[in-house]
Amino acid sequence: MSERPLGTAHARRVMLVERAFTQLPGPVHGPSELAAATGLDTTVVYRILQSGLTSSTFVKVPPGRYRLGPGAAQVGIHAMAATPGPQTTQPVLDRLSRLLDGFAILWVLSPYGGPRKAHAVSSPGRYGFDALGLTATQLVELGQSLRVGASGRVIAAHLPPPMAASVLAEPVPAGAGPGAIVDPAMFAAALQRVRETGYAVARGEVLGWTSVAAPVLWGEAVYGAVAVLKPSSLMPRDLSLPITATAAAAERLSLLVSGVEPITRSLEGRSMRRIPVGDRVAA
Question: Which end of the chain is more exposed for a tag (fewer CB within 10 A), N or C?
């Protein structure tokens, strides 16, 4: 009768060790460092790491340190492959684009070479990527970077602290507009505001454009961000509707990503929660 509780306890310890790799700075850690992060005995952590070598969940990096291996990556790849594709997410973006007469984009978090964002699906409305006035190189660099734009900030704000710190250490890409937040301390403060409000606004970080973004979450993990861009001259001064509509679309996508069938609600409908007057932002 004691095998089940003992097995459950062991499984919990394994998950604590795996989670510690996502919370500590850097990819490579020793048993003592992981033990301090998890509150487990160093010997217990060492045994967990050794047992994970056969499944490639962990990989040993001499001398006596470990990192997450391809077995852990395979689990993540399978999890991401089960999330909704364009056929499911496109209608959400289309409705948002029509409502705000803007360029709606779903960005997803990419871990390749450090935290980046990648274009998943978009609804350009009457605009398009060429309307942004960027070269192909600038479009790629600004599109991938989390240091520029409202979408970058809402993703960075919900990353584990070590990954958020790596974003702070990156330079602002060439081609960013004058509104880009260059100072790391100011950028860190902007991330805190995102955590408090649930959205971000960017003005002139792409020259001549204003954007609003909200995070798409998968449980406690950030999946990506929904952003709406418009020429600054056409974005309304009162941003309560763009913020509310973008946050509603992000919430709907969060439910879809989590596998929860969302309650049907129209972005144009009266049921949409409005931003309180005190939270309205002028462009």
Answer: N
